[in-house]
Amino acid sequence: MSNAPELKNFVRERRTARGWSQQELADRAAIARASVSAVEMGRLVPSAAAALALAAALDCRVEDLFRLGHQPSVGPSWAWQPARLPTRYWQAEVAGSDWLYPVEPTYAGTLPHDGLFDGTTTISRVESLPPTLVMATCDPAVGLLSGELARTSGLRLLPLIRSSRAALKTLQERKVHVAGLHLGPEGTDENASVVREMLGPGYRLVRVAAWDEGIVTAGDRKVSSARAARRARFKWVGREPGSGARQCFEEVLGTSLAPRRIALDHRGVAEAVRAGWADAGICLRLVGEEASLEFLHVRSEAYDLCYPEALENDARLRALLTAIRGPRYRGQLADLSGYRAATGEIVPIN
User: What is the 3-state secondary structure (H, E, C) of 158-201?
Assistant: First the structure.
């Protein structure tokens, strides 16, 4: 039926969390491996018998594996599969779903985890979960915001490091509350245009800051202009497509040249240059100067946070907006090299 509700399934997350192959799950559930693959990819709606067999093999309820549309989950599910077991995790509610996030590096340092998953058993390490806001961002100064939220509202911020388009994708999947992006020069509508393109209407941007992005080089590799950088035979380190830094890289060097090495974040770019693995790269002025690198300005960018309109009355979002507009956070942000605090203005995406 064309109007049948969407059936979401979490078979793959449960299977990989146990470290099983599709064949192993198929053997345990006594169904064909091809059926497991088809179910995981959403090409096959399992029969009641197959759904019960999968749930029994994975030692969970059918409701843990399958649900309709945006129906809230009856139990926590992995936001994405853990890379290894056992794994520490954070837990938070986003858009009615209870998610487990495998612990990963953050710009706010090593954050206390909520529990441990050993492949079969989830072991809680906290008596009650703290109120938590999950953010996908590449802002290396997000620790300032994390500290301000903890100070003013007792809110825990989980700042997951993601490039701009990757951050918007996690927001689209309803796995984070807020996504940061910097995909256009300061004073343009580029950030809003990308949100319209990827997410459509029903979202809002809050103006947080403007920052300087450009070329970093070691002291003996100085260049005086972007044109000189293009002519130099540098080994470049860059960021993945979809990031603001990759967009800036292509502005300097064109789209025909790809960076020889890819870093996962701004500090990864600076570290590659500082360690001599690359001659030059694109990152924020703050990060380059913290690493004692030479910096050549290319452009000033608008850094915004995107959130769904449906979150407007959520106490966690209200605390975030209050912190962003507060004089303490704005003052700390303005003290950073290459940062300028914005107004906290809200821009609707229509």
Answer: EEEECCHHHHHHHHHCCCCCEEEECCCECCCCHHHHHHHHHCCC
Instruction: Tell me the three state secondary structure of residue 350.
Output: coil
Q: What is the pLDDT of residue 73?
A: 47
The answer to whether the CB of 68 falls within 8 A of the CB of 28 is no
Neighbour count for residue 154 (Cβ, 10 Å):
10
| Pairing state between β 236-238 and 261-262 | parallel
Q: In angstroms, rounded to a whole number, what is the distance separating the alpha carbons of residues 210 and 214? A: 13
Amino acid of residue 227: R
pTM for this one? 0.78
Domains (range + CATH), the chain: 7-71 (1.10.260.40), 195-350 (3.40.190.10)
Token couple for 188: 């343009």
Query: How far is 118 from 112, CA to CA, in rounded Å?
Result: 17
Cα 219 to Cα 118, 249, 272, 291: the distances in Å are 47, 20, 14, 11
Averaged pLDDT in 10-residue chunks for the chain of 350 residues: 64 72 92 92 89 86 75 72 93 90 95 92 86 97 97 96 97 96 93 96 96 91 81 91 94 87 95 95 97 95 96 93 97 97 94
